[in-house]
Q: What sequence folds into this?
């Protein structure tokens, strides 16, 4: 057999294997990240995998500085700005290193004449960000959550009296591990507000002008792991300390279209498809309505059962990450195992918090939540 025929046969088999997987029994993936990607996006990527833009190659094999890829990133920037209504005086950077890389990059770029920053601690990830930032600057940290009556709630969001003594104030609006979400934007007066939106970016409307910088790892609502988006106000660019590595320097990256080295091209491409998919389905307003409906459905069930419980105050319940427990570790483990066998994947809670966690990001259809509730009712009837 000629090599060309072998390649054709391989491509035929490969495509059939991918298409065949769509005929399997429906599986709902509740992973906290990497998380679900819209089925239409995966299908489009599958169709283009071997022949992108009629070039006979995949997007992973073309030059990131070539005509077609440069057109892709230009359109991705435009689509993302449209989705989030990003003002013209903000740069959008597509970088590597995930949100954790930004834990270091932010103080290296934003610590200036005041020499310190304030971190609002609402859980594991905001605390982790503060810990990393201490390697680069003086950091003050304030806990903004309290445990009262068996519930966790946010107890303070007004820092206008102290914020302006800091170069910036950092917070995490959605803590994936505990399922705590902060929907109100903290009041920091005229200080620079920084937000880690990794787990709830594009899940609802947001006034970008209230922030100096927003960053988000892609693997929840934007696309696959491997890329992080930074939205930074232009007047904050150009202040990086001399020792800042070029790859973390916002000014250098902005001047190079986020490409001072070879970027994660496939992740960038998939993000661009997600943006188009969101725009085609009504944008952020539409997805926010769907997200709220999914969350209300699941929390409504949790509120009427005594078998499971959620320990987050209603005003701070996450729309993206719904945590719950039976109160019995062995029963929790049994729940996770049986749910997995039923096609409800990745419901085990984080090791820090335990219990169960249903991550219902933008790509989770309401049918997934309905299937989860049906299973929860069945499990309760069999184990109560």
A:
């Amino acid at each position: 057999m000629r090599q060309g025929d072998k390649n054709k046969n391989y491509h035929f088999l490969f495509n059939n294997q991918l298409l065949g997987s769509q005929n399997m029994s429906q599986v709902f993936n509740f992973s906290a990240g990497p998380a679900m990607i819209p089925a239409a996006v995966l299908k489009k990527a599958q169709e283009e995998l071997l022949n992108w833009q009629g070039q006979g190659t995949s997007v992973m094999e073309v030059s990131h500085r070539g005509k077609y890829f440069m057109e892709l990133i230009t359109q991705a920037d435009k689509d993302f700005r449209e989705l989030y209504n990003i003002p013209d005086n903000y740069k959008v950077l597509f970088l590597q290193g995930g949100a954790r890389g930004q834990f270091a990059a932010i103080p290296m770029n934003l610590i200036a004449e005041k020499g310190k920053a304030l971190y609002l601690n609402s859980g594991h990830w905001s605390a982790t960000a503060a810990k990393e930032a201490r390697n680069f600057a003086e950091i003050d940290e304030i806990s903004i959550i309290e445990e009262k009556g068996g519930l966790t709630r946010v107890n303070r969001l007004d820092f206008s009296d102290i914020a302006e003594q800091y170069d910036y104030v950092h917070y995490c609006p959605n803590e994936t591990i505990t399922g705590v979400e902060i929907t109100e934007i903290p009041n920091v007066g005229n200080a620079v507000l920084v937000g880690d939106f990794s787990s709830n970016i594009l899940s609802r409307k947001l006034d970008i002008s209230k922030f100096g910088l927003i960053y988000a790892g892609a693997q929840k609502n934007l696309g696959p792991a491997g890329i992080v988006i930074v939205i930074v106000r232009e007047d904050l660019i150009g202040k990086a300390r001399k020792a800042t590595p070029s790859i973390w320097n916002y000014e250098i990256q902005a001047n190079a279209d986020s490409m001072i080295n070879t970027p994660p091209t496939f992740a960038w491409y998939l993000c661009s498809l997600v943006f188009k998919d969101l725009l085609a389905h009504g944008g952020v307003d539409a997805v926010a309505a769907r997200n709220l409906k999914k969350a209300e459905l699941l929390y409504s069930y949790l509120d009427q059962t005594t078998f499971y419980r959620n320990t987050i105050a209603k005003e701070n319940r996450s729309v993206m990450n719904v945590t719950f427990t039976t109160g019995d570790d062995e029963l929790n483990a049994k729940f996770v195992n049986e749910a997995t066998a039923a096609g409800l994947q990745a419901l085990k809670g984080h090791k820090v918090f335990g219990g169960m966690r249903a991550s219902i990001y933008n790509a989770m259809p309401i049918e997934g939540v309905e299937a989860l509730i049906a299973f929860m009712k069945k499990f309760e009837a069999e184990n109560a």
About this structure: Confidence is low (pLDDT under 50) at residues 1-24. Residues 283-304 form the longest helix (22 residues). The radius of gyration is 22 Å.
